[in-house]
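name: query_chain
kind: protein
chains: 1
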Amino acid sequence: MSTHDNTSHDLEVRDGHTAVDRFEDPGHPEHKPRLGDLDPKANKKAERQVLFLFGISVLGTIGFVIAYFALPPGETPESMRTSNLALGGALAFALLGIGTGAIHWAKALMNDHEKSEERHLQASDAETREAAVNALKDGADDSGISRRGALKGAVVTAVALFPVTIALPLIGNIGEDWDVSKLKHTMWKKGTKLARDPSGRPIKASDVTIGQVFHVIPEDLEEAEHPLDEKAKAVVLLVRLDPRDIKSEQGEGWSYDGIIAFSKICTHVGCPVALYEQQTHHLLCPCHQSTFDVADGARVVFGPAKRPLPQLPITVDAEGYLIAQSDFLEPVGPSFWEREK
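structure:
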């Protein structure tokens, strides 16, 4: 088979087959009018639906304000859960109403004719810029916002009120304690006994066998002014290894007879690191799979975390109870905290 003249026929032979080198632009498909384009009642119904959706957003914002004052977080897990659910649910309705209302408006009420323009150089002449401005005006006319006062009022109200959900928590914290240095220290200090979580019972070195894992809190945690806040910073995972398996520590003499303790707070985003693999001595964070080697100073062996888990220096007292030698000597939690050693 011979090759056709591409100039005249736009055809060529490729791999023994005749192929079209270029196609004519088929143009836009035939426009199919929507029900609202043909039936004024359907158009009015769509308008009411958009009003309803923006109304949901307004109610969601109002509900957020009410929940913020009526359901404070409090100090118990139950009160915190209730507050978070109420605030989160109200915020979801506030955002959902705006989003679905805008989408439904665009799909049901705005002009839906497909249009295309040729691509030109970015620098346009004055005539083209004037045409662009006119196109924007035509788009505003297509949206019907100037003719539909109720819709305009609904969208303006919903969008204007929504920032309250962001500003209110910030305003509400004016006058609160902004001393962030408190977040850089924990309850651990020299002589503080290591206790089981959640019972608070002190742990003796003799209670811990090789391969055993303990979730640990300071013994005097309940005496703190804000126990839950302090626990969130001070939680520790304690493991006993065969001393011969310990490759390195973060400080000399920070473990006791193979018993070693590290912060449970992942250095990536602060999730609890609590999955211990006895054969490899690896600790796994369930949130993003950061993996730490307990036998090697809790260094990162996999995942997005950028630094090892801080080690808590421990020893034993005269009665054989495990005690802290000091607080952590580096910040716990995500790596953006800074503290002098």
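note: The mean pLDDT is 85.
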